[in-house]
Design goal:
Distance between the termini: 43 Å
Radius of gyration: 21 Å
Bound molecules: 6-O-phosphono-beta-D-glucopyranose
Order of helices and strands: HEHHHEHHEHHEHHEEHHHEEEHEHEEEH
Number of helices: 16
CATH superfamily: Glycosidases
Oligomer: single chain
CATH architecture: Alpha-Beta Barrel
Number of strands: 13
Largest sheet: 8 strands, parallel
Strand order of the largest sheet: 1-11-10-7-5-4-3-2
Shape: globular
CATH class: Alpha Beta
Length: 472
C-alpha cells in the first residue's frame, strides 16, 4: 500500500518549465564588444545566409526577450555561453570584460525574474582560433583551454547558476567533424582526428565534472546528449541490432562515459579493428574514475525508422553504423525537413534512458517542431506546434507516472532562431522574429499561439494537458 502511495501522479511543484536556445543561434553581434569568431560564425560566412552576425539580435534585445520569458511564466531558461565572447581566441591571457559582463546581465536578469538559468558551456561554437592554432579538439591542448574557460565561468557565475551543461550533442560533433572545424580529404585521417577529438571532449568533460563538484558543491552538471528514437523497419534481428548500434553511436557511448566513466568495449573493439588508438595518458584514468554527471540532458526531436541498405551511403563517419536508409512512416506527420511527430517515441526514449541509468534525473534540454512561418495580420497560428507541445507534455507526464525522474522540460526554442542548416526558413520558436534569411527587417517579436498555450500549461503546472489534440 505504501508503495502505491508513493506513485507519482503529476508534475512536481518544483518542475522546471523552461525553453531553450544557443548563443550563436540567437545572439548576433558576432564581432561586437571584442567577441572573436567561432567555427559556427565561419560556417555562417561560408553559407551566405546563416547570418550569425545578427541572428535574431538577442544581444541587443536582452531586456525585451527576458520580459517575454517572464510573461510566458518560464521557470527555467536553457541558453549557452559563447566561448569567444569570454575568450575571443579561446585561450587569451585575460577574459574579455564585455563578454563577461553580458552574461552577468543575462543571468542576473533571469534570477531577478525568478527564472532558473541552465547554462550550456559549449554549444557548437568552438573558437576558430583554436582550430587555427592546433586543430581544436583533435589536440590535447583544447582540454586545458576548455577547462580554463569553464573555471572562469564557475568563478564568475557559479553563485547564480545551479545547472550546467558541458557539451551539446557531443556525438554529432564526432560524426560531422566540420562542426568543430576538422577537415581533411583523407577520410581515414579525418576519422582519426574526429575520434581524438571525441576522446579529448570526454576528458575535458570529466575534468569539468570534478571541478564543478569541487568549486560548486550545490550545483548539478551533466551533458546535453542527442537521443533520437530509432526503430527498425524490419523485424529481422540484423536490423534490430543495427538500431542498437545507431542508438549506441548517437547516444549511449556519450552517456556511458559521462555516467559510468567507462568507454564501452564494443566501441573500443571497433576502434581497434579500424587501427585507431585513443590518445590516452595514464593520468587521465583518475579523472574518468571520479568525474561523473549528476543528471542527463536529452535533446529529443523525433522517431526515425530505418532499414538496412547496402547501397545507401552512411552519413555516420564513426563507422559503427553500416549503410542505413531512412524510411518515412506514412502514418506519422512529418515536418518539411523529415522530422516525425511521434509523442510516444519520446515516452519510449525516456523509458530507455531511465532503464539504463535509473538513479539519474533527466532534463529535456531540447524538443521542438519546425515550420516555415509567415505573419498573418501580426499573428502566427502555429496549431501543429500547440498540438506537438500538448501531446509531448502528455507523454512526459505519463513517463513521470511510470517512475522516470524528469526535472525539467525546455522546448526548442524560446524564440525563432537560426536553424543550424536552414537559417530562418525553419522556425521552432514560441516567439516569432520578423526577419528572413536575406533581410533583417525590424527584428520585431510577436507571440505565437504556442506562446499562449505554453503559458497556460506553466500556469496550471501541466494539469490542463489533454491526452490528444486531434484537430488542426
Ligand atoms: C540540435 C541542436 O541538434 O538540433 C540545435 O542542439 C539545433 O542547435 C537543433 O538547432 C535543430 O536542428 P536544426 O538543424 O533544425 O537547426
Amino acid at each position: 500500500m505504501s508503495v502505491l502511495n508513493s506513485l507519482k501522479e503529476d508534475f512536481p511543484n518544483n518542475f522546471l518549465w523552461g525553453a531553450s536556445t544557443s548563443a550563436f543561434q540567437v545572439e548576433g553581434a558576432s564581432t561586437e564588444d571584442g567577441k572573436g569568431l567561432s567555427v559556427a560564425d565561419i560556417r555562417s560566412i561560408d553559407s551566405k545566409f546563416l547570418d550569425t552576425s545578427v541572428s535574431v539580435d538577442h544581444y541587443h534585445h536582452l531586456e525585451e526577450d527576458i520580459a517575454l520569458m517572464k510573461e510566458l511564466g518560464l521557470k527555467s531558461y536553457r541558453f549557452s555561453i559563447s566561448w569567444t565572447r569570454i575568450f575571443p581566441n579561446g585561450n587569451d591571457q585575460y577574459p574579455n570584460p564585455h563578454g563577461v559582463a553580458f552574461y552577468h546581465r543575462l543571468i542576473t536578469l533571469l534570477k531577478d525574474n525568478g527564472i532558473e538559468p541552465i547554462a550550456t558551456i559549449f554549444h557548437f561554437d568552438l573558437p576558430q582560433s583554436l582550430v587555427d592554432q592546433y586543430n581544436g579538439w583533435a589536440d590535447r591542448r583544447c582540454v586545458d583551454d576548455y577547462v580554463r574557460y569553464t573555471k572562469l565561468l564557475f568563478e564568475e557565475y557559479g553563485d547564480m547558476v545551479n545547472y550546467w551543461l558541458t557539451i551539446n550533442e557531443h556525438s554529432l560533433l564526432v560524426n560531422v567533424p566540420n562542426m568543430i572545424g576538422l577537415k581533411s580529404d583523407d577520410s581515414k585521417k579525418l576519422r582519426e582526428m574526429a575520434e581524438h577529438a571525441n576522446y579529448h571532449m570526454f576528458l575535458a568533460q570529466a575534468k569539468v565534472f570534478n571541478l564543478c563538484h569541487d568549486l560548486l558543491p550545490n550545483a548539478m552538471i551533466g551533458p546535453a546528449v542527442s537521443y533520437m528514437t530509432n526503430l527498425a523497419y524490419n523485424h529481422k534481428s540484423s536490423d534490430v541490432l543495427l538500431g542498437k548500434s545507431l542508438e549506441d553511436t548517437v547516444s549511449f557511448i556519450t552517456m556511458d562515459v559521462a555516467v559510468r566513466g567507462e568507454f564501452p568495449t564494443y566501441y573500443l573493439r571497433k576502434l581497434n579493428e579500424d587501427g585507431i588508438n585513443l590518445p590516452l595518458q595514464p593520468e587521465d584514468e583518475k579523472e574518468f574514475k571520479t568525474g561523473r554527471a549528476d543528471f542527463l540532458g536529452l535533446n529529443w526531436y523525433c522517431t526515425s525508422i530505418f532499414r538496412h541498405n547496402e547501397i545507401a551511403t552512411s552519413k555516420m563517419l564513426s563507422g559503427v553504423i553500416a549503410q542505413i536508409e531512412r524510411y518515412e512512416d506514412p502514418e506519422l506527420q512529418h515536418t518539411e525537413w523529415g522530422f516525425s511527430f511521434d509523442p510516444l517515441g519520446l515516452r519510449y526514449a525516456l523509458q530507455r534512458v531511465h532503464d539504463r541509468f535509473p538513479h539519474l534525473p533527466l532534463m529535456i534540454t531540447e524538443c521542438g517542431w519546425s515550420e516555415r512561418e509567415h505573419l498573418e495580420n501580426g499573428k502566427i497560428h502555429d496549431h501543429t506546434r500547440v498540438r506537438f507541445l500538448n501531446d509531448h507534455i502528455y507523454q512526459i507526464r505519463e513517463a513521470i507516472r511510470d517512475g522516470v525522474n524528469i526535472i525539467s522540460f525546455n522546448p526548442w526554442s524560446f524564440i525563432d532562431l537560426l536553424s543550424v542548416n536552414d537559417g530562418m526558413d525553419k522556425r521552432y520558436g514560441l516567439v516569432y522574429v520578423d526577419r528572413d534569411n536575406f533581410s533583417e527587417k525590424r527584428l520585431k517579436r510577436y507571440k505565437k499561439d504556442s506562446f499562449y498555450f505554453y503559458q497556460n500549461v506553466i500556469e496550471q503546472n501541466g494539469s490542463n494537458i489533454q491526452s490528444e489534440i486531434t484537430s488542426n
